Amino acid sequence: MMLGEGRIITMARRRHTPEQIIRKLREADRLLAEGGEVADVARHLEISEATYHRWRAQFGGMKADDVKRLKELEAENARLKRIVADKELEIDALREIAKGNW
Q1: Number of domains the chain contains
Q2: What stretch or stretches form a coiled coil here (predicted)?
Q3: Residues 53 and 76 in one domain
């Protein structure tokens, strides 16, 4: 966004922990209940409107503990998928060896 005198203002990218996201969404709920507009609330929370909507869709009614557990389950799921993929490769290799085509 350009402002007078050639200055550019950008929002610095930063990562938020799930706990910080939940805290900001609660603050947003409070500000919106007081009659605030989404644009003003996002500006107050120092995030973009798109980020607010993405967080709301992803973390909507969750509590901090729920988000922490979700992240743990996602990590475990990724680990298990890697294990299954490795096993499939081993099975394919053993099939090729059993055929004698190596």
Answers
A1: 2
A2: 63-97
A3: no
d(CA 91, CA 87): 6
**Range(s) of the domain holding residue 22:** 1-62
Residues 9 and 46 in one domain: yes
**pLDDT by residue for the chain (102 residues), tens digit each?**
444 555 565 556 678 888 889 889 999 999 999 999 999 999 999 999 999 999 999 888 788 788 888 889 999 999 999 999 999 999 999 999 998 865
